[in-house]
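Hi Prof. W.,

I finally got the DUF4493 domain-containing protein prediction working! I wasn't sure whether to trim anything, so I left the full sequence exactly as given:
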Amino acid sequence: MTKLRQFLGGLICALCGWMLTACSSEEDSLQIPEGKGYVKLNLTTNTGFQTKAMDESYYTKEENYTVQILDDESSIVKNWKYTEIPEGLIELENGSYVLKAFCGEDKNASTTSMYVEGTSDFDINGDQKEVSVTCAPVCARVTIVGEGMDEQFSDWSAMIGTKAQGSGSFYQYPKDGDPVYLKVEKGESISVDFTFTPKSGSKNTTVSKTYTVNPNEALKITLKPAASENGNLGITITIDGSTNDETINIEIPADWV
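And this is what came out:
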C-alpha cells in the first residue's frame, strides 16, 4: 500500500505554510493589550494528484476549506471560509488554542465525498505566534473489482467492517468498481467478508479477510475466478497498494461445483 501519491502528492494541503505569523516592522512595534496576543493567517497549498471516480480535485482548492480557531474547551472562537480569512493580525485572549482547517463531510464511509483535516495546538501569552498545520485525509480509499466473475458466479458481495462503524456494523461495497472512502485509524485492521454464489446452484460461501490500512492510503482488491491444483473452482484475490502486490489463492470446496 502506498500513500495516495497521485492523489495527495500533496494535499498535504500543507496549509503547510499556513503561517500564523508576525509580519512587518509596523506590526512588530504594535502595542499588545494586556492579557492578549495576536496571530496572522497565511494559507498556501501544495497539491498535485490525479482525479478518480470522485472529483478529488475539489480538495486541492483553497476556497473549499473552512478555517477555525478553537479554545481549550473546543468552543469555536473564530470561524471563516478560506476566502474570508482576515489579512491583518487577529487578536486573541491569552490562552490555549487549536488551529483547525478542514474540507468535506466527516462520514464513516462514502463513495461521494471524503474528509480532509489538519489541526495544530498553540498558546497565546501576550505575544505574536507562528503556527503551521498540515491537512490530509482521515480516510483510506478502498476499491474492490471483480474480473470475469460472471463466468462462474451468479453473484458476489463484499461487506467491510471498520472501527468507526462500530461492532457488528458493516458497509456493503457497491459492485461498480468505484472507490469507497473509509474513516480509519493509523494501522487499523479492517475486515472484508466476501460472499460468492456459484452458477452451479450450489450453496453460497463466505470468505473473511483482514487488511491493515492507514489514512491517506489506497487499497485495491481484485477478485478473479481461478482453478485450483485439484481442479476445483477457486478465487484469486490480488491486493494492490500500487507498488506491493500480494496474491492470495482461496480454494472453493468441491461441493460447491
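DSSP finds two helices and 19 strands in the chain. Does that look reasonable to you?

Thanks,
D.
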